[in-house]
Amino acid sequence: MQNLKIQEEVNSLMGLGQHYDEQLKLASLELGDFSDDDLALLDKCVQYYSLLHIHDFNLNYLRDFYYAKKRECIENRQTAVQQRVELQRILSSIDEVTRDVVMLERFKGAAEERLIPDIVVVQRNSQQLATKQALLDRQKTLTIPKDFNIESVIDKVDSLEQR
Are residues 88 and 66 in the same domain? Predict the structure, then answer.
């Protein structure tokens, strides 16, 4: 009984093989026309068909698979292009920031060159305060006569300047 089932299955597979050979001949193809790589792919395909118990070969499935792979390839290219554009944008912003950093470093260097140390500032302030105090002290000791008229002195200076 078991042998009978196996014999029937072998006969049906042989008939299916002959059917496919006839289909290939109708398309003017012979198995010898395929390269070794193509034959290896066909062998792999046959193995998958036998493992999955698929006996009807439908070209629509192959076309669907091809178009799915083609779509995936196009999407991958599109993603790569988008990533290249994004990378270019990031690189240009990095260049811009680098230029800004260089400019700020030059500014910082110039500012540090012009910077006056704290000790010098304190010394100048103390000198100015001492000079101010000395002038105030001289002003206090200066006695101005009561009959002094500043306007007459200004008029005399103006007349001297005009000559």
Answer: yes
